[in-house]
Amino acid sequence: MAAAALATGAAVAVSGTIAFVGLVTPHVIRLVLGPDHRVLVPMSAAGGAVFVIVADTVARTIVQPAEFRVGVLTAFVGAPFFILLLIKNKRQAYAL
Predict the structure, then answer these.
(1) In this structure, is residue 59 part of a structural domain?
(2) Residue 15's CB: how many other CB atoms inside 10 A?
(3) Number of neighbours of residue 23 by Cβ within 10 angstroms
(4) Is residue 13 part of a domain?
(5) Contact (CB, 8 A) for 47 and 20
(6) Up-side HSE of residue 39: CA atoms within 13 Å toward CB?
(7) 49: closest CA among 75, 22, 69, 85?
(8) Domain that holds residue 68
(9) Please, are residues 74 and 18 in contact by the beta-carbon 8 Å criterion?
(10) Structural domain contains residue 30
(11) How far apart are CA 79 and CA 88, in angstroms?
(12) pLDDT truncated to tens, each residue of the chain (96 aa)?
């Protein structure tokens, strides 16, 4: 476990934090594929990888020749998504 913590710390130190990937991806996958965890867990991992690759590609090409930070881009996508998700859940809670 210590080796995993050190490897994670080193990766974050090099790349910086990447916001909302672990929170947005499972919710989007659940909305698309449903609540079956046998499908949800592996597809969330694959979806998270695809999300980061797409975000990195966009971040590298949006401001040429400089590079936009991936964490900022994922935060711009993730924060509005969660606001919409909270509003949706609040409406469903009041409807009951």
Answers:
(1) yes
(2) 13
(3) 14
(4) no
(5) no
(6) 9
(7) 22
(8) 18-95
(9) yes
(10) yes
(11) 14
(12) 999 999 989 988 887 888 889 889 999 999 999 999 999 999 999 999 999 999 999 999 998 888 888 889 999 989 998 899 888 877 776 766
Of 8, 17, 11, 22, nearest to 71 by C-alpha is: 17
Q: Could you tell me how far CA 91 lies from the centroid of its own chain?
A: 24
Residue 16 φ/ψ, nearest 5 degrees: 85, 170
Q: What is the pTM of this model?
A: 0.78
Number of domains in the chain: 1
Six-digit token string for 67: 């590079």
Residue 24 CB: number of other CB atoms within 10 A? 20
Give the H/E segment covering residue 87.
helix 70-95
Distances (CA, A) of 42 to 5, 33, 46, 47, 52: 22, 12, 6, 8, 16
For residue 71 the two structure tokens come to 């964490």
